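Researcher: Good morning. I'm working through a list of sequences from a screen, and I'd like to move beyond sequence-only analysis. For each chain I'm collecting a predicted structure so we can compare shapes side by side. This is the next one on the list. No need for commentary yet; just the structure.
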Amino acid sequence: MRPLHRFSILITVCLLGLFSSCDDIIEPPQIPEQKILSYDVVKAWDISTYAAWKDQLPSFFDSAGMPINIFHFMHSAGVNTIRLRIIHGKPSFPHPTLEQLLWIARIAQQQKLAIWLDFHYSDDWADPGHQATPNDWKNLTIQALSDTIQQYTYSTVAKFCAQNTAPAIVQIGNEISPGMLWPLGNYSGTESQAQNTAALFNAGAKGCKEASPKTQIMLHIIPDGGMLKTGRYFAKYMQFDLWGFSYYGNWHGCDDSIVFNNFQTLSDINQKPFVIAETAYPHSLGWLDNTNNVFGLASQLCPGYAASPQGQLLWLKKVWKNAKSKPSFKGMGIWEPAWVTSAGQSGNQGSSWENVCLFDFNHKALPSASFGW
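Model: Good morning. Structure tokens for this chain:
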């Protein structure tokens, strides 16, 4: 339960004008203790864009062309967790709003699917090339920004807890190898920068734990050239329960043995398990809308894995099997397997991922949708 005296202090600080905006400083309802739905091995789909479609959901079909309920289908395919990204402010498609996320969490919980929240702490995508501080939080000192992150994270997680959908995992930042909330949280390799990044990260982690003490905190980074140095600094200063790593052959190397050895090395530093937070592979190099695809070139493929339904299936099987051989492996997430092109969402509102989904261009399940966790 969150200490009420700290909220009073925050309100006082807010009234003194130290915050540029107080929209996030909202006292959520009191939260009863609750059991968190979670699984020993995470088998996740990130279905954030599906949540953003709330009022115009596309139809999906099984491999035989029969209509499916995507939640029933996920469950039957072995998925046990859904991952949902949280964008600050007023998200627009393909980002879901908080209300849409709460709605999707309720449905998922009914289907015995655990919840994994991915805080981007930005008004748009956060990734290795973009970690922009929300407009409402600009020009704050690092202490004021830390306080804001703590309260914002607490308030958001508390809303999930209040509807009995407490998250099993909360990810503090998305792919934060270069830091988070630039420029204060920028990290380019120095220990002092790592400490600044950690101050912001730990504020988010504290806010989450105040709302939901049993939720696991994830640190999500990428396997770039400085991964081991970054990981050691972050492990020294950050408070978290499990590592999260992205792994895409196009960006991180097709030889997963090198990458997974680094994952295990970092896990051994602080004896924290790891999850492959994101992976995916194209089933085609074709397209269905006017939005440029992220994976659209033959040069982006890994040898031996064609951009075909079979190539996609083999990729997921390989990643799962090889990662599972590592002692600290705790699960895997497939990124946006249902971000198909849908009627009413074309052009700039189309999908840059339709050829990497686990459904074909007719929204029919591909073999990889049930690849065999």
